[in-house]
Amino acid sequence: RHPEVYVMSDAANASIPLEIRQQFPCDDNGRVLWFTTPPLNNTVTPLDVVSPKNGKPLAHTPVYLAAKEKRKKLIEERKKQIQDGSAAADQSAEAENRTENDGHPSSKRRRIIDVEVDTLVLQTLTDQILNANKEWYKSQYGDSAEEAEAFDAVRAEERRTEVEAKKAYFEERRKVEAERKEKEKAMEGKVFRDDWDERH
What we know:
By secondary structure, the protein is mainly alpha-helical. It is 64% helix and 3% strand. The protein is built from 5 helices and 2 strands, in the order βααβααα. Strands 1-2 form a two-stranded antiparallel ribbon. It is extended and about 95 Å long.
């Protein structure tokens, strides 16, 4: 039968401060006892545990209990606010859908105009970026700005192709590894790994 109580070496035991050691069961030499299983008498409640200093039952302080209750109320209020907020958001989304889909010709026309305005804004922004890019190349390279811009465009395309190739490579590796793990899980306990995996 295995021993159920252990003690640490004297050096390890001495590393525990005396005031801490006195709070735990000790042997005749003052070494802390370490048990391999919990006690059989587990009917002890926290209120039955008595402080070794003053003999009063151990319990939370009133300050802690008040803070705990306050935190619980705050959490409940926050949950209620979140629920109320999500309900209000659902109602506003529903009202917006009603106004958009009310079947009135003006609402359909308004949506078409919004799309056209968005397209125009994007086109204007794109033109401004391209013009600023050309001006920058002119300021940096002077007469050979078009050649430099074309060279940079080719390099950017090469980099994009390289990145795409790396993404495809790592995606393929991920798929192969997932398939290997799936096979390994399916074969667990039936065959040895070296029967199907060349690496082993």
